[in-house]
Structures are given as structure tokens and as C-alpha cells.
Amino acid sequence: MHWHLYIKQFKNYLKLERSLAENSIEAYERDIEKLAQFIELKKLNILTPATLQAEHIADFLEFLTELGLAPHSQARILSGIKTFCKFLQLEKIIDEDPSQLFSAPKLGRKLPDTLSVEEIEILLNGIDLSTPEGTRNRAMLEVLYSSGLRVSELVDLRITNMMTDFGFLRVVGKGNKERLVPIGKTALKYVQIYMDEIRKNQVIKKGQENFVFLNRRGSSLTRVMVFTIIKNLAASVGIIKNISPHTFRHSFATHLIENGADLRAVQEMLGHESITTTEIYTHLDNAYLHKVINDFHPRSKG
After folding, report:
1. Is 79 in the same domain as 227?
2. 186, 299 Cβ separation under 8 angstroms
3. How far, in Å, CA of 282 to CA of 157, rounded?
4. Is 30 a catalytic residue?
5. Residues 35 and 122 in one domain
6. CA distances, 148 to each of 4, 157, 217, 221, 238 (Å)
7. Which of 155, 174, 227, 253 has the greatest number of beta carbons closer than 10 A?
8. Which of 170, 205, 231, 272 is catalytic?
9. CA 295 to CA 136: how far, in whole Å?
């Protein structure tokens, strides 16, 4: 029996026997679909819920950590898996529960705090757009959150790698490897404002002409400068969390996955080359990646 048939039976169980609300049923369904996607990514096509083992769940949770999914989100997904395994036991599909060894919230290495959608809005709206630096900072943070870039990828972003007509950025990531990442409409709007109203009027140092984001002296920004900007902004709006540029990357992944985005698409946009150290992910069509951003990113409709 294929995964989707088990999931269909699981939904009926939640509705008829557990009497859960539709929203709760949909959340459980998304959790198990993510597990099924992971099984497909690992090319374990012969693996079914009837043969699911603890090691597979452990690998899946580790993968979610690698994607940058927040611990509380991992805990919620694990709760969905545990409920699914209980259903499998009740239906006598499995004898032993492979999820019983796992407990929240200890789900791997500690990640930086993740911002909620509301906290992202508070941060972005707290930027003073009346100053050149504020206009630049708004554009930078919109790009970080819209595309899930590493801070090194942000400061190294070049004008010649901005494929604005197509809604993509060409990003040079770890190991000098390039990838195409979609950028949302809202981020593009603020980048265009920065380029037209601020950057165009700057005196730019020789050799720095191709960098998108510049400091007031016309040179490319440093990673430390971006860290400082974000720390100061968080303090100014009263967000008491240990946040950094990487927090935006974690939030990008978390919000996409929580809204139902395909794990493979998020993996590719983040530039993670493999699920494990030995398996390469399946390449996805760029148009599909752009659709994921448009369909699932909280700020894609701006």
C-alpha cells in the first residue's frame, strides 16, 4: 500500500475516532506527508509505514534540523508522527511503535531562535526608511527573509547576478557552488527602491561597482556589519531574542515548511546539497521553486 493510502486512512481515523477539527487534521496530514517526501528523497521507495523503523525517523528529524526548522516546529511534527504510529498500531499495521524512543524538545543541536511572521513584520516595520542606511537595511533584510540566503551570500550578492526579470538570484554558496534562488515580489520592490533612490546616488569605490549592498563609503558590506545592524534593530523594537542573519534563514525555512512547502524545494533553495553526506538531492525545475515562494512564503504577495 502506498503512503497516500495510509495517510487517507489516518485522516479518517482522526476525523471519525478522534473527532479532531479540520485544521488539526490538515496539520497532521502535512506532518506525515513531509515524512513521506523524505522517504522518497532518500530513494527508499520500498519503505512503507508498515516497515518504518526508528532509524528512519531519526534521519528525518536530523534532516529537519539541517534545513533549519525550529525546534518547536520539529516537536510538533514529531507529535504528528507519534499519533500516526499509534494509529498504525491500533490498525495492527505495525506491532511496535518506532516513534516511542523519541521525545521533545531534545531534537538535535540547538538552533538560533526563530522569528514568528509577526516578529519579522515588527523588525521590518521598525526600520527608519527616511535614512539612506534604513532604505538599504530594509532591502537587505527583505532579501534575507525572502530567499533564505547565508549572510556571506548576501554581502557577496552582485548586480550581474540579479535576474530581476525572472524573479531569481544567482547565488554563490559554500564550496563556490552556484544556485538559483527565487526572490519574492516584496523583496524585489525594496531592492529596486534602494537601487534607484540610494545606491545610484553614491560615490562607489573602484572595484566595488558590482556589489548590490554598499556601506556609506561605497564599499561592500562585511558580515560583521550585517550582524550589528540586525542586533541593533532587534534591540530598538524590543525583540529580546538571540537573533542573527542566520535567524532569517531559519525563519525562511520554518515558515515555508509550516505553510506546506515541499521539503525538496526548501532544501534546494537553501543550497543543501544532500540529505545525508552520501546522497545528492534531485534537481527541481526553477519555475517550480518560484511557485513554492509565491504559494507558501508569508511575504510573497506584496
Report:
1. no
2. yes
3. 26
4. no
5. no
6. 30, 13, 27, 18, 24
7. 253
8. 272
9. 27
Tell me which residue range forms the domain holding 185. Answer: 117-296
Instruction: With a cut of 70, list the residues of the chain below it in pLDDT.
Output: 1, 43-46, 104-113, 272-290, 292, 301-302
Q: What is the CATH number of the domain that holds 198?
A: 1.10.443.10
Options 249, 255, 297, 299, the catalytic residue? 249
Looking at residue 283, its pLDDT comes to: 37
**150 counts as catalytic:** yes
The one-letter code for the residue type at 165 is D
Cell numbers placing 148 = 533564505
- CA 178, 280, 38 angle in degrees (round to 5)? 115
Which pLDDT score is estimated for 187? 94
For the question of residue 6 being annotated catalytic, the response is no
- List the catalytic residue out of 34, 136, 150, 255: 150
Do 68 and 254 meet the contact criterion of CB atoms below 8 Å apart? yes
In a domain, 105, yes or no: no
Considering its fold, how many domains does the chain have in total?
2
Look up 174 and say whether it is catalytic.
Answer: yes
Query: Choosing from 56, 76, 246, 291, which is the catalytic residue?
Result: 246
We report the CATH number of the domain holding residue 23 as 1.10.150
Whether residues 180 and 249 fall in one domain? yes
Residue 97 domain-assigned (yes or no): no
Write the pLDDT tens digit of every residue in 219-233: 999 988 999 999 999
18 counts as catalytic: no
Q: Clarify whether residues 76 and 201 are in a common domain.
A: no
Last residue of a domain, one of 90, 107, 134: 90
CA nearest neighbour of 226 among 119, 153, 168, 170: 153
Catalytic site residue from 4, 174, 189, 217: 174
Respond yes or no: is residue 283 known to be catalytic: no
**Residue that has been written with the C-alpha cell 527573509 in this structure:** 145
Nearest to 134 by CA among 193, 217, 184: 193
C-alpha cell recorded at residue 90: 491500533
